[in-house]
Amino acid sequence: MSKTEKQAPDRTAATARPDNGGGTAATGVSRRRLLGTAGAAGATGLVLGAGGGAAGYAATRPEEPAALTTIGATEAMFHGKHQPGITTPLQARGHLVAFDLVAGAGRKEAAALLRRWSAVAKELMAGRAAAGGADGPGHDTGIALDAGPSSLTVTFGFGRTFFARTGLADRLPAALDPLPVFSADALDARRSGGDLWAQIGADDALVAFHALRALQKEAAGTARVRWQMNGFNRTPGATARPMTTRNLMGQIDGTGNPKPTDEDFDRRVFVLASPGKPQEWMEGGSYAVVRRIRMLLDDWEKLPVEHQERVIGRRKADGAPLSGGTETTEMDLDKAGPDGRPVIPGNAHARISSPEKNGGAAMLRRPFSYHDGIAEDGAPDAGLLFICWQADPFRGFVPVQRKLDRGDALSPFLRHEASAVFAVPGGAAAGEYVGQRLLES
Amino acid sequence: MSKTEKQAPDRTAATARPDNGGGTAATGVSRRRLLGTAGAAGATGLVLGAGGGAAGYAATRPEEPAALTTIGATEAMFHGKHQPGITTPLQARGHLVAFDLVAGAGRKEAAALLRRWSAVAKELMAGRAAAGGADGPGHDTGIALDAGPSSLTVTFGFGRTFFARTGLADRLPAALDPLPVFSADALDARRSGGDLWAQIGADDALVAFHALRALQKEAAGTARVRWQMNGFNRTPGATARPMTTRNLMGQIDGTGNPKPTDEDFDRRVFVLASPGKPQEWMEGGSYAVVRRIRMLLDDWEKLPVEHQERVIGRRKADGAPLSGGTETTEMDLDKAGPDGRPVIPGNAHARISSPEKNGGAAMLRRPFSYHDGIAEDGAPDAGLLFICWQADPFRGFVPVQRKLDRGDALSPFLRHEASAVFAVPGGAAAGEYVGQRLLES
Ligand code: HEM
Ligand code: HEM
What we know:
homodimer; disordered N terminus; alpha+beta; globular; binds protoporphyrin IX containing FE; TAT_signal (chains A, B); 11 helices
């Protein structure tokens, strides 16, 4: 099967957005336009086709029109100033996978791997088969056959240990210094760290798994999986709320995030390296702090909702600050209630973590929820794959987590189980691969 | 927050389908109609809104119209002749959870639990909060707040061990006799069996998790989780293929399933018990065989595609039988190639499992894929949560698995890791709870 055959018949590539980010607010996602009339008719039929299932196939969707919806057709761009998967809208499914270089693999092998990975990521993000094609040797697994790109993003990063192993110790950024130990850490070293990291996101679970297998295959002989985690968010269209997702505690999550329209968004989230400096290769990149944070849901769910709301400082139903307004209203941290005490409690999570209380420290949180069934202790093995993005973890994650760790109201319901930090270089320009400026300079 | 507030503003309940199944082909799913013009405009905007992400929020979907799409708005009916989740179209996310009654819990406690579970399932499937409401004591976790029903189904079943524990040994159906031991079984007893079973499916992962937590909460004090598994299928709209899904081997899966339009569909899949017989309570019910089947993907993916196709007897790209045609063309098991040998090999999985070669034995396969990361041996802990539905497992699953186990071409790439069989009674009539005819007769 050739690559072109894999294109769904009624998609045409429209308004591809070659730049992941640029100046301000672009999310680097383009929605492939369905063919005019047919597309519109299909969409209307899809939404208005009530009374479904009166006839047809068992365990199938008999009435779905033969067209991708937005979910399948949305395509994120591989090339750009920034890598995809940072400002890209949250996807329904995510995989995090860390690799360690095998003995004997050094800079040369790593460069070749990043070149292969970049080539694969670019093909898959466009909804095509992995390099090697659908058959023949090195063939594609076929798991994503006849699915659209489904907002697939693949994002690559380098861990602290990568640099010494590849003879690049002089390029190791100070931003990859080990994180301080926090009092509430219960970290599992086998699920922490890693030389290399890939974050995969897509709105279809099979498209995401397909990408994971393709990366693993390319890594064979050069790097082996150190740890791997699965996550999820809402399926687009499952909720009418346009902006933020909920986490497994039931809270609206993401409200306080810096917005790409903020004047200082780029400066906070992305590295703006000065040319000629040893970290020039990180220009346009960002640092990802990854924490697997277990939620102690059995305890949490016992709290009355009003108590849960005081723990965060926001209302559960709509995310509005306890100081009033709607989700987008700014928190009024000074507002006092009739009893003279602040309506957003002194230990509320959203107060303690706010830039206002942290000398402006901010990060872009872009998490996935995780749920791996029942843990050995009988509690749900579920929580947040907390991923935050910033120009410097020591001016983003670290000061904030230091304060939270010292005792915000949420901490008793959390357990940090794994931790890693990765340097995620800028996006590859056309013809380039991710990390080339590090590996070939 | 009251229950009505939780309804999305532009949904109206349309063409509710009160009967899950009835005579022939209904799938028991109704799609809530969006309000005429507004809905249509929203849908068109959604699909045609190309160039997405030019402005707006980081890590959000700025342009999504403030309306549920079909994914969120689709609602499966709780009441009906059959339980939902059997002929319901495959959902993107699934949870299987088995419970054992705690010491001291008997028939009375089990009846109360099934009554509570049924009440919760009905509310959640309609997109409302769990009993107890969104706040106050016993409040809803809020994880599904502002999401639509998202095709949620909850299906309940009884395992063999349930009957003696509840003093109902005289009602134990022969269909729940232990399965024979198959030569390739590598079953983990801790993830097999169970007194009670719930299957949850939804097109949104948070909606599914919400339902799982709600069931667990109702079970507290009466039953404890024995095992729990997570699965997934394609997100609707991610592919243009209307009928079948793919599995993690990349194959189109579900083609050979009996169709609700087949004359003998009901007789094969559902129990048509004679009144007055001890198993009258199973009228309209079905038996679910659940097998967690690991795929040995590292081995499988090494096979050339033509070899993979001979293992199944169908083409990978489009699911057509190797004897020719398209996916829906019947297999021609007698057709020989130029070399005189059958083009669908003698040990091909689809040949060996076909009703034609099994005295008509047939089952409705309705699986979820699973992927729990990397197993201890470094291989992907991934495969199929194989669930098949039939009026009698000894005339459906058992004879077919006996033959497959004796050596079809697929078996070397599979490992059956867990097994369970559940009696899934018919759907609850209005005012009734699932299992009432067993527990109160
Ligand atoms: C499972 C763990 C966590 C949960 C469930 C959680 C939940 C929340 C919620 C519900 C909010 C309010 C809504 C919003 O602005 O998104 C919030 C805000 C925030 N959280 Fe967390 N959080 C967690 C961990 C963390 C960690 C580890 C950090 C950083 C060290 C962090 C930093 C922030 C920041 C910066 C805000 C925004 C505050 C503002 O409004 O300016 N959170 N979190
Ligand atoms: C991970 C394990 C399995 C995989 C990957 C698998 C895959 C497939 C595929 C690709 C097909 C052809 C397309 C289709 O008709 O759906 C098929 C057909 C079928 N399989 Fe399986 N299968 C598995 C296990 C089983 C088991 C355990 C049984 C029953 C004991 C079974 C029974 C059937 C039946 C009845 C058919 C339809 C044959 C016909 O066309 O009439 N399969 N399977």
